[in-house]
């Protein structure tokens, strides 16, 4: 389970450290994709394989599954942390998330999200404002 919020600088080669407490869980590698919001999502390899299986056996129509698979898999990047626990962030993903020199790494249960600091502060504020409503709707079920 990934949780917490961590701030890092990106080095001149576009690398960012993975929080030390997560490195063991990501030792087999990870897959990076553009998030729906302006962020990068980092899936552990095991979670990525579960997602890939779900996308090939989903209940959507074949046409919709093909489009979804193209959108997700064509924009995905496989990576591993180097000996110092850093990963290189591919330029297309950095551009998507508008990440330049600072990055916020936020745990999101089964995956990580990498954010531009300004976008993260806005998203976090919005989520905190709506959290009580979401919790109340879950309690009614």
Note the main attributes of this structure.
alpha+beta, Chemotaxis protein chec
Walk me through this protein's architecture.
The chain has 141 residues and is of the alpha+beta class. The chain has one domain: Transcriptional regulator MraZ domain (Chemotaxis protein chec, 3-Layer(aba) Sandwich). It is 41% helix and 25% strand. It is built from 5 helices and 8 strands. The strands form 2 sheets. A 6-stranded antiparallel sheet has the order 1-7-8-4-3-5. Strands 2-6 form a two-stranded antiparallel ribbon. A hairpin with a 4-residue loop joins β7 (102-107) and β8 (112-115). The mean pLDDT is 93.
Q: What would you call the structural class?
A: alpha+beta
CATH architecture: 3-Layer(aba) Sandwich
Total beta strands = 8
Q: What integer value in Å does the Rg equal? A: 16 Å
Number of helical runs?
5
Strand order of the largest sheet: 1-7-8-4-3-5
> Which fold name corresponds to the CATH topology?
Chemotaxis protein chec
Q: Any idea how many domains?
A: 1
Average pLDDT, rounded to a whole number, is 93
Largest pleated sheet: 6 strands, antiparallel
Low-confidence stretches: none
Task: Using the coordinates above, name the CATH class.
Answer: Alpha Beta
Shape summary: globular
Order of helices and strands: EEHEEHHEEHEEH
- Strand percent estimate: 15-25%
Name the helicity range: 40-55%
């Amino acid at each position: 389970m990934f949780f917490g919020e961590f701030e890092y600088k990106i080095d001149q080669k576009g690398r960012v450290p993975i929080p030390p407490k997560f490195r063991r869980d990501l030792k087999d590698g990870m897959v990076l994709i553009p998030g729906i919001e302006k962020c990068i999502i980092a899936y552990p390899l095991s979670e990525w394989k579960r997602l890939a299986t779900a996308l090939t056996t989903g209940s959507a129509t074949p046409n919709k599954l093909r489009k979804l698979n193209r959108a997700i898999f064509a924009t995905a990047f496989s990576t591993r942390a180097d000996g110092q626990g850093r990963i290189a962030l591919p330029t297309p993903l950095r551009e998507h998330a508008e990440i330049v020199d600072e990055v916020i790494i936020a745990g999101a249960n089964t995956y990580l999200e990498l954010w531009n600091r300004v976008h993260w502060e806005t998203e976090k504020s919005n989520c905190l404002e709506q959290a009580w409503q979401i919790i109340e709707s879950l309690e009614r079920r």
